[in-house]
């Protein structure tokens, strides 16, 4: 997943395509979204609770 720091504005769809081409894996966008959120330290609920970061 070295592509994320190299291209920080990459979309989930573009990232899924890159993973398919380079790593030969198929991932759902929702799974990729969750994995990136965990890897980047994003926490669920900030938007709903009114807490800004």
| Strand segment count | 0
Shape designation: globular
Radius of gyration: 13 Å
| Class from helix and strand fractions | mainly alpha
Low-confidence stretches: none
What's the order of the H and E elements? HHHH
Query: How large is the share of residues in beta strands?
Result: under 5%
Number of helices: 4
Compute the separation of the termini in Å. 25 Å
Rounded average pLDDT: 81
**Major sheet size, sense and barrel closure:** none
Percent helix: 55-70%
Walkthrough of the structure:
By secondary structure, the chain is mainly alpha-helical. The chain contains 4 helices and no strands.
Spell out the blueprint of helices and strands.
Blueprint: H1 3-6, H2 12-22, H3 29-40, H4 46-49
Observed structural traits:
mainly alpha; 53 residues
Task: Summarize, please.
With 53 residues, this protein is mainly alpha-helical. It is 58% helix and 0% strand.
């Amino acid at each position: 997943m070295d592509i994320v720091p190299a291209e920080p504005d990459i979309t989930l769809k573009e990232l899924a395509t890159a993973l398919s081409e380079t790593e030969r894996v198929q991932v759902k966008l929702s799974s990729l979204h969750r994995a990136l959120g965990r890897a980047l330290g994003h926490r669920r609920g900030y938007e709903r609770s009114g807490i800004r970061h």
